[in-house]
Write a structure and sequence with these properties.
By secondary structure, the protein is of the alpha+beta class. The chain is built from one helix and five strands, in the order βββαββ.
């Protein structure tokens, strides 16, 4: 499954909201430095989709707010 996500880093309350077929709005409670927000994003998505963290890969937009994520 491939999803598009708009990610906001350093949020007070983390959440995942589905806003379309494969579109999600995600807020993570980690800063956007040294890949911390991306690591937290992977953890949150793995828990949300009930898969292991190794099955969640950011395939596009690693340094952008808009990300393409593969969940296998």
């Amino acid at each position: 499954m491939i999803i598009n996500a708009t990610v906001t880093a350093n949020a007070k309350v983390p959440f995942i909201a589905k806003i379309g077929e494969n579109n999600y709005k995600i807020k993570v409670n980690a800063p956007a430095t040294d890949g911390k927000a991306n690591r937290r994003l992977v953890e949150m998505l793995a828990e949300y989709f009930d898969v292991s963290k190794s099955r969640v890969k950011i395939t596009g937009g690693a340094t952008s707010r808009n990300k393409l994520i593969e969940i296998g």
